[in-house]
Fold this sequence. Notes:
The chain is α+β, with helices and mostly antiparallel strands. 53% of the residues lie in helices and 21% in strands. The protein has 7 helices and 5 strands. It has helices at residues 6-12, 14-42, 57-67, 73-79, 93-105, 155-168, 176-206; strands at residues 49-54, 84-90, 110-116, 129-139, 142-154. A 5-stranded mixed sheet has the order 1-2-5-4-3. It is flat and about 65 Å long. Bound molecules: ligand 0O2. Ligand 0O2 binds next to helix 3 and helix 6.
Amino acid sequence: KQNMPPVYRELQERKFIYKYELAVEEIQNYLAAVTDPLSRECGRDIVEFQCSRIKTADSIVRKLTKKGYPVSVKKASEKLNDIAGVRIVCDYTDDIYAIRKRLLEEEDLVLVKEKDFIKTPKKSGYRSLHLIFEVPVIINKLLEPVRVEVQLRTVIMDFWARLDHQTRYKHNSQSIKEIYHELNECAAIGEQMDKKMLQTRRFIEKNSEHSL
Length: 212
Ligand code: 0O2
């Protein structure tokens, strides 16, 4: 720990992390305010599960380096949008866009960036909707906007992303090309599955007295 470069220590200090923790709490309040009524309206839980994380010092240093930025606390705050991150996992794609619509109606939430990897998946096959919000938090009695990345995805997209993520961090395999090819196929099947599940739910809803 003593040999650790100072920036690692700074990125782990409460002084740096605190505002991101507050931002996560704040966005979770907004999310609950949006998803609870939506679930009631739909008559089912539209969020299967959710999680949050503050990016580790290691991961921040790796990302800054990969993007070609100097590794410092200042650059991390300025350039990285996902130091604070929340992931919402739903069963169906239409739930994702319903949540997005309601979040955008929230007055104090400022959408600073949106990346729709569901409409346009990444070459890897990655699918998710990324919304970067500026969330107002109070630090030392002052209001400060802090960026948080909200990742919205279906259970199927999440399943794929977890396997892909594990693979990327163990890329010493001889057969990496074949693995990526297989993952790409899984992504295509996942997309079909998401479409089919949504179609089927809508069909069931149309043909029954109650919504699912
Ligand atoms: P980790 O370990 O998940 O934190 P930006 O600067 O906002 O424009 P950014 O953040 O450089 O863009 O990249 P992008 O593409 O928006 O991706 C941000 C995050 O999405 C990643 O964070 C991953 O969590 C996830 N992601 C993006 N592409 C893939 C992919 O191909 N596979 C998987 N499994 N996840 C992906 P990190 O920091 O890379 O990683």
